[in-house]
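Worked problem 6 (solution included).
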Amino acid sequence: MITVVQLGLGALMLAYLGVFFQDVWKHRSEIHSDGPLKNFINVAQGYITKFLDTLGIGSFAPQTIIYKTFHLVKDDSNVPGTLNVANTIPVMFEGFIFLTIVEVEAFTLIVLIIASIIGGIAGAKVVSKLPVKKVQLVIATALALTAILMALRQSGMLDILCEGNTALGLSGVPLIASAIGLFFCGVGQSMGVGFYAPCMAIVYFAGMDPLVSFPIMMASCAAVMPMSSITYIKSGKYDKLMSILIMISGVFGVATAAYLVKSMEKDLLVWIIVGVVIIASITVFK
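Solution. The predicted structure is:
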């Protein structure tokens, strides 16, 4: 059954790439470089943030900060779309990897993936039609929420929820409740809210083994992001050149983290990111 999920993700990846490159080719005359420095920043951020993303830290928050700091996205209303479109392929690679190396009950995985997809599509349809000011509010709120969840997870407060958790799958009310939670995770993902921390919290609350959160969140993101990204692509609400650069370098970042890194002291790094995310959230609110 897991193989079927992997084949499904593979087919989805090919379909997504077809839509993406068709749109890029159609609007190729509109794609202009902002100079070698910004191109380098985009390549570097793609590699580094997806490297960290594969370790479970998440990439939406740090990428949003980089976008704002270096003025990489001229129109703030394009930020959610660029986040989704640029990260889709690297995240799909993450999904393939964690489905291979971590065991999870197939039916639970499929139910939660479907719930995430529905949420992602619903969120993308709403955000792509919002005016700039409202999108800025969503981004600021997303950053604040992400910082809080990252801090709770990093401080160990979420770990209390998973003491003794060993389940690899769910059924009945816990499965239904988790599916509802993953639906809203999908909505948040399409709006630029990091998927990983909320997904981990839901897995913990449901009584599952914490390690199972990795294939669930990676595979769910891998399924959600192509759907929500296609909505952004069709609306034109994303930066095309930046998406290409981050997409390519991000795949290399994922590969490096997945195959070369066995363990890393990342506590200090995560706390630094939490602090910077809080500052960025305050800045956007202001």
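Discussion: Residues 2-26 form the longest helix (25 residues).
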